[in-house]
Design a protein that fits this description.
The complex is a heterodimer of chains A (about 160) and B (about 375). Chain A has helices spanning about 10-15, 15-25, 50-55, 120-130; strands at about 30-35, 40-45, 65-75, 80-90, 95-105, 110, 135. Chain A is of the alpha/beta class and about 160 residues long. Classes of the chains: A alpha/beta (about 160), B mainly alpha (about 375).
């Protein structure tokens, strides 16, 4: 069946529980939203990310208590370059939401969410290892997959697929 | 004392390195060190066409290759907006459940082998041979099948295939009875697994555990039943949940899942819909070989798909399936071209591994081996 067009209007989407909760808390935190292919994406502003995650986790009606996935996309050469993507799942309500934060290319850093979901520990280490995004407040931010003495961030778009050897 | 349970170890189920700080026989701290199997699959996917990524996905969680295929293929079909014919969906469910049986048999055999029950290994692999022969019949490969393609299946299963599957499902429950007879009431097994490596449900959810690791701690979530995909909502099956949260509970959950998967395969055999096995999308799905050899349009479509790929509308999608280890998710970002812009694989074992320090700190070293076996990790999924 043909794809339904994406809905990007905040007005139409503000009934969705996650978005309603965030807009009710602080409307400035949400810079945009998108409902595409039956998935809701919320663009959160960088300074508010950690608190927004805590609010979504402790929401009484739809608690997003499970962090499914934490990853990063490199949009080189356009700025802002990095986009950190959080996939949240509400185990009780079986609902998913995606949060996205845009970071600039020079010295990208963001607050860690390991204090909210300890599951983020390995995911944030992997993003630091492969993209170079620093997570402030992470208990042990070291390289995870690559050797400790590796230089460079392999999953960035300016790193060749063949690697340097 | 700091002890290295090095990457080369018979009980770490792959190249996992655990740095243990021990005090006598007790583990004080544990830190997993991974990355020994990192092959840069996520980076490689960005350089290949969408259909070329399918064989790469087989190798991520190499014990359940068809589940990886399914997750990736469902994600791309969601990006494209393709509708898959019911026969293809039912066969996908059948192969997915046979893959789950396959994976749990390896888990049971190796887990029992680590703890010391060595004969269970041979019993499980006897059944696994039957399943691998079924996979070979349908795709030509025993392990890295790549049987699911974007838009449906690669080929129609051969004649007599469903009779062979039926014969397997008829004799399988008695085999599971054999494994249970060997282990479940065995006093040595119970002594080694009951009360060992306990994980509370709050810890399991906070640390990102999914699958039987989470269900054995009492949290009832199964993506096949709760967020169904590929016509799983048409089948009845129970989801085993236990409240004990120890190694024995995870063992019971997975053995019961063996029986439930068998029931699902039996349900797919009775009432399999007729029809095509590929979606009606000539620009995405390869045409049949006979049509390709006789019709001009089919030949052109085949040529274009193989050499140039097919453009996928821009957007992103996160598709999660219930793999034998838990929630396996694929996050695919498309920029409108024929190659994916970013493919991220959320391996279930990657998050499940984070529960290991919590389970093992304060316990004996011997329990570490039981705990590693019980969370059923696959290093291919962790390191990619």
């Amino acid at each position: 069946m043909p794809l339904a067009p994406a809905i990007t209007d905040l007005e139409k989407l503000k009934e969705a529980p996650a978005l309603a909760r965030l807009l009710g808390w602080k409307a400035a935190a949400v810079t945009g939203a998108k409902f595409d292919r039956e998935e809701l994406t919320i663009y959160v502003d960088r300074p508010f990310l950690r608190e927004a995650c805590a609010i979504l986790r402790d929401d009484p009606t739809v608690p997003f208590n499970f962090l499914s996935d934490l990853t990063c996309v490199d949009w080189y050469p356009s700025e802002p370059r990095f986009e950190v993507v959080y996939h949240l799942l509400s185990i009780a309500q079986k609902d998913r939401v995606r949060l996205k934060v845009k970071l600039g290319g020079d010295d990208p850093s963001i607050e860690s969410v390991t204090s909210i979901w300890p599951a983020a520990n390995f995911f944030e280490r992997e993003i630091f290892d492969l993209f170079g995004v620093r997570f402030q407040g992470h208990p042990y931010l070291r390289r995870l997959l690559m050797p400790e003495d590796w230089e460079g961030y392999p999953l960035r778009k300016d790193y060749p697929v063949e690697g340097y050897r | 004392m700091i002890l290295n349970m090095g990457p080369q170890h018979p009980s770490t189920h792959g190249v996992l390195r655990l740095i243990l700080e021990i005090d006598g026989e007790n583990v004080v701290r544990m830190m997993p060190d991974i990355g020994y199997l990192h092959t840069g699959i996520e980076k490689t996917c960005e350089a290949k066409f969408y259909q070329q990524v399918v064989p790469l996905t087989d190798r991520i969680d190499y014990l359940c290759p068809m589940t990886n295929n399914l997750c990736y293929v469902l994600a791309v079909e969601k990006l494209l907006g393709l509708e898959i014919p019911p026969r293809a969906q039912w066969i996908r469910v059948m192969m997915n459940e046979l893959t789950r049986i396959n994976s749990h048999l390896v888990w049971l055999g190796t887990h029992a082998l680590d703890i010391g029950a060595m004969s269970v290994f041979l019993y499980c692999f006897r059944e696994r041979e039957d399943v691998l022969r079924l996979f070979e019949a349908v795709s030509g490969q025993r392990m890295m099948t790549s049987y699911f393609r974007i838009g449906g299946l690669a080929l129609e299963p051969p004649l007599g295939f469903f009779d062979r599957v039926k014969a397997f499902t008829d004799r399988f429950p008695s085999r599971v009875d054999e494994y249970e007879e060997l282990l479940t009431s065995n006093p040595i097994w119970v002594e080694r697994t009951k009360g060992v490596a306990y994980m509370s449900p709050e810890d399991a959810i906070a640390l990102g555990a999914t699958g039987p690791t989470l269900r054995a701690s009492g949290v009832d979530i199964d993506l096949r039943r709760d967020m169904p995909y590929s016509s799983y909502d048409k089948f009845q099956f129970k989801v085993p949940v236990s409240k004990d949260g120890d190694v024995f509970a995870r063992y019971i959950c997975r053995v019961q899942e063996l029986r439930e998967s068998n029931k699902i395969v039996q349900q797919t055999l009775g009432g399999m819909p007729e029809g095509p096995i590929k979606a009606d999308a000539p620009k995405v799905v390869l045409p049949d070989r006979e049509k390709m050899k006789t019709q001009m349009e089919a030949l052109i479509y085949h040529f274009k798909i193989v050499t140039e790929g097919f453009a996928v509308p821009a957007g992103e999608v996160y598709q999660a399936v219930e793999s034998p280890r838990g929630e396996m998710g694929y996050y695919i970002v498309s920029d409108g071209t024929a190659k994916p812009y970013r493919v991220h694989m959320r391996g279930a074992s990657f998050a499940n591994l984070q529960t290991l320090p919590k389970m093992c700190e304060g316990r004996l070293i011997a329990d570490v081996v039981a705990a590693i076996g019980s969370i059923d990790i696959i290093l291919g999924e962790i390191d990619r």
